[in-house]
Design a protein that fits this description.
The protein contains nine helices and seven strands. It is an alpha/beta fold. The structure holds S-adenosylmethionine.
Length: 240
């Protein structure tokens, strides 16, 4: 197997192995911040409250964003959940979301190559799915996003960043690179998969390559940073 950490097969392997404990680990390791950030992502969608739209959740994982999405827009008709990891889909279906099953369509596919129909989505969200792409893949992602959205449709994407200008960054990095790997080794039988998040986040930086890619794909986009630059939201629309 490839050791390129941006090879989609490598990434799928990491998340397949994480899928059992992903939900709890991500909530605990982030002190619950990921939940607030998923909510912030959903709030970035400029849709009417009573919309009956159908859209996509890109790099959906175990569907942690759906409770927030369906609470904010209770009449949403359907969400197509795109994720490359069969393990993450399996956990989304079996544990979390039985009551939402009729409104979720699962698509186990690589977002960078999926042939989801052009101009088919009324909206798109993505929570924490951007850091496992490199700069060139960000451009492919942005082009795919623009292709899949209907003209005028909104999107909102959120990702954890490396807060390079924050005075507490050394503490934050020590936590990500020093503490979490030890905790994972101890509690998850020596696994080192969640530890990868540290490297992905460091490489992702402040997410500049996503912003450049979204603009160059032709999307209207605004950025919002959270908690001294520990997360960034890209929200906007596809022009009409
Ligand atoms: C950090 S998880 C985020 C999951 C979820 N959205 C959340 O808020 O917790 C990143 C997800 O992106 C998926 N992913 C990574 N690369 C992908 C690709 N090329 N195509 C589709 N999904 C991908 C992984 O399988 C994983 O489930």
């Amino acid at each position: 197997m490839s050791n390129d950490i941006y090879d989609p097969n490598f990434v799928a392997g990491v998340f397949d192995r994480c899928s059992d404990s992903y939900r709890n680990w991500s909530a605990v390791a982030s002190f619950g911040l990921v939940r607030a950030w998923r909510r912030a992502c959903v709030k970035g969608l400029t849709l009417p409250k009573d919309t009956q739209a159908s859209g996509v959740d890109l790099m959906a994982g175990t569907g942690e964003a759906w409770p927030h999405l369906l609470a904010e827009f209770p009449r949403i008709a359907n969400v197509t959940a795109v994720d490359i990891s069969p393990g993450m889909h399996k956990h989304a279906m079996s544990r979390l979301h039985k009551s939402r099953d009729d409104r979720i369509t699962h698509l186990c596919a690589n977002m960078l190559t999926t042939d989801l129909p052009t101009a088919s989505a009324d909206f798109a969200i993505s929570t924490f799915g951007l850091k496992t792409f490199n700069a060139q893949q960000h451009q492919v992602f942005a082009d795919q996003l623009c292709r899949i959205l209907k003209p005028g449709a909104p999107f909102s994407l959120i990702e954890a960043t490396d807060p390079v200008d924050w005075f507490l960054r050394p503490v934050y990095r020590f936590y990500l690179d020093g503490v979490l790997p030890q905790v994972e080794r101890f509690f998850l039988n020596g696994a080192q998969d969640f530890t990868m998040i540290g490297e992905y986040t460091r490489n992702f930086g402040k997410g500049e390559t996503v912003l450049t890619a979204l603009k160059s794909a032709g999307l209207n986009v605004e950025t919002t940073y959270y908690v001294s630059g520990s997360a960034v939201r890209f929200s906007g629309t596809k022009p009409n």
